[in-house]
Fold this protein.
Amino acid sequence: MSSPGGWDIGRRLATICGAAFAREAGPADEVAGVPARWVAAPGTVEAASAVLALAGERDLAVIPRGAATKLDWGAPPGRLDVLVDTGRLAGVWHRDAGELTVEVGAGTPVRAVQAVLGQRGHRLAIDPPSPGATVGGVLAAEEAGPLRHRYGTPCEQVVGLSYVDAEGRLHHSAGWAMRGTDGPGLNQLLCGSHGALALIVSATLRTQAAPAGRLWVSRSVWTPLEVHDLVRQALAASVAPSAVEVDLPAHRAALIPRQRSRQGPGTLAILIEGGRSDVAERADHLITVLGGDARTLESPPRWWHRHPFEPGEVALRLEVPISDLHAAIYALRDAVGGPVPVRGAAGVGVVHAALPSSLSADRVEAILQAVRGVLLFRGGTCVVVAAPPALRRSIDMWGPVAAMPTLREVKSRFDPHGRLAPGRYIGGL
């Protein structure tokens, strides 16, 4: 039974959002293993502001939820009172006359935006691997797909954001740096913050004409070093790829060549986009450059656009200059004692990997320390994206964070009372 104070909070949330859109939380309403107390789904920006104003008045911890495709990513919150469901803050609201930008509600599924834009021959250069992901969720987690190679991360597609601060005030940003600083723009700070700085309610994003032609050039590979050499050759070939992705297998047995087999267990796949005839010509040239069993595909490989980890596994993100990506993968294999699934953007040096959930916290921590020790001198990082709840409380999910003093200042400026996704920001802030 709810306490009298809890009953009053539930009543006020129902008044703000509507009786059908505010309720006590159920078993599925949790973030990284931490249960919520209430769920509120505001239907307007004004209602979202009122929910956060109430949270400020009652000192309630708030975390936004879109399609819940990445709520198990990141660190568990220190506390959680209200899950703000953004599903009703959805829609393609404004488009400029030249179709260069579009404003989208935070709760809008990315695929819905693509469907609307596709009717007029346009698209977002955003392709998150999480099925059903919303625009707000993609920005909050800074989840990038294969197209980041050519177009950058989702954050780099943002022209402006509308967001509600910890006190319930609505703001609009155009991406300029914070006043009095020479640091990153406001959009850059909000993207990837897991809701720990503000509640994003809408985003204005760049659009582009959808390409008439798309082809994938696929080639099997044996080793990370071979991937390194082939990527270097592909980038020097002047074929302007839209994506350069690699998939490397997990099992040691897969690395043993079969007799008379010339096909490696891994795959390097490169996306070429543009005019139909131009795409075919560039793909043919790339096949010549890559050699081996390189071939053209009219649809992507089955693993394309998918993370290599499953729910319950320890998911890692390795980010390193592309010249050192092979060294990072070898370091991970050495630390684990064998191959692990690795997949991602070989052309920009960002890949994901998966460790079994059966590993102990001490074993995972030892692996992380070994890999981070190698990457430290190569300008790289190894971050734990997700892990079983019991495990993630016992490991260092971020590793060394050089900018911690700045991040503390940012968190303090946006959320001085620690009510927005406490513990979910970089470094556990």
User: Anything to note?
Assistant: The chain has a mean pLDDT of 91. The chain has twelve helices and 21 strands. The first strand starts at residue 22 and ends at 24. Residues 361-376 form the longest helix (16 residues).
